[in-house]
Structures are given as structure tokens and as C-alpha cells.
Amino acid sequence: MKPPPFEYHAPRDLDEALRTLAEVSGKVLAGGQSLIPMLNMRLAAPEHLVDINRVQGLAAMEAERDGVRVGATVRHSRAERFGAHPLLSRALRLVAHPVIRNRGTVVGSLVHADPAAELPAVLAVLGGSVRVARWQGEVRDVRAEEFFVGPMESAVRPGELAVSAYFPALGPRTGAAFEEVARRHGDYALAGVCAVVTFGEDGRVEAARLACIGVGPVPVVVDVTESPADAARIVRDRVEPEGDIHASAAYRRHLVGVLAERAVRNATREAQDRGA
Question: What is d(CA 199, CA 203) in angstroms, rounded to the nearest whole number?
Fold first, then answer.
């Protein structure tokens, strides 16, 4: 199928991009790995398409002492190779296939807000944020817990552009893991769990957080600090999965519990190794 007609815009700088978005009602094109199929299947029919790939400054990726900032046009493959954030790199290897990762963007995946996607879970479990800009308006940093509004719905408002995402670094004595199950490699996960576990200087668990995908309208963040050993039960009580042709709700609930237990175990082992 072919996409519906639209007017194409290719701004060269951020001001022009923001001004264009303020003047027209349309969609932003970055990697296009989600948007183009939606256009071809007529699931989206914007009157305008604003291509930000020529905008200078949006391809920056910077490692900071307390985290990593990823620009709006940074590709999955580049972020994976950058290697400044081990959990982000680990999650990116689970995203689709290499040909998709060569074009798809980190920030685009966050804005797309697919409840089965890996990167929203990483941002959520780390407590990261997305920076959003508007023409002649405020630049705001939206925290992960407020950014994902619903399935395929983020907090980016009409006329705004998500210009970067910030992923906080893993602290000392901290380990992370990402576990998921998909029907085939590269498919969206039936369920997945991202875990971050931190030990205190006394050798006890100081913090343990999980973010679950595929079992709710947004990434489901669960704090299991008080009882990491009960992660499976706690997660199963918190999630609200829906059944479809690929898996029943009951199976997804069972699966996410198994993955939660596995993710906590692997993140704990990594935290202990880093603290040794």
C-alpha cells in the first residue's frame, strides 16, 4: 500500500523545525520505522510530515557523569555501539533486527510509546526523562512516569518536538538485567522485565526496581526493594495484561512473573560482581 497524500517539510535547524510544527498539524519523521508502516497501512494520515533528519544538533549523544543524553535523531545502532550505558545497550540488542536498528531512533521509540517496546521500560526503570521543546516557548523535561500516557500515547503535545532523552547512569554496586520472551527473535515481546538492583555498603539490597512490558498500557514500574525474593508474586499482583491471538492474559501474567524472578536474580548477580 501507499501512504495518503501529505506535504513534506525538511527543516535545516531546530528553530525552523519548531516553527514548522507550530504552524502545521502533522507528524515528525525521524527513523520512520514505526511511522512509515502506519502511513502505508493508513493507520495514520497526517496532512504534513516534518522530517527532522537534517536538523543540526539532534544527532548528539553525550556521556555525562550522571547519565547519558541521546539526541532525537540518534539511531539505535549508534547508541548501542556508543556503549556508555550498559543497560541501554543491552536493551537495544533486543530491538527488532539490525536493519531496523540502523534507521530507528531511540527518542522516536520513546515517543511512539508502544507498551511492548523495550526502551520505554529502560527509561522508566531508571527514572529518566525526555526533553520537549516548542517554538518560542518553554523547554521542559518530562519525567518517565509522566511521559508515557497510554498505549501509543506520550506526553508530547501538538506543536512540540522531543529533542532528547536522558538516561541516568547505573550507580556503584548496581546491576541490571533485561529478560523477555518473544515468539521469534526480533518480534515484539509477549512480556518482558527490566531490573535494576543496588546493594548498600553493608551488603544488603538498597534498591530494587522493575519495569514490565507487554502487560499493561504503559511500562509497569514495580519497587521490590523490601522483598526481592517475592518479585514474581509482587509483579503478578500489579500487572493487568490483556490476551490476544499470541498469548492469553493468564499466560502473560505467569510469564512476567517468571521473567521478574530471573531479571532480579541476574541483576543481583551483576551488582554483587561490580561491588566485589
Answer: 6
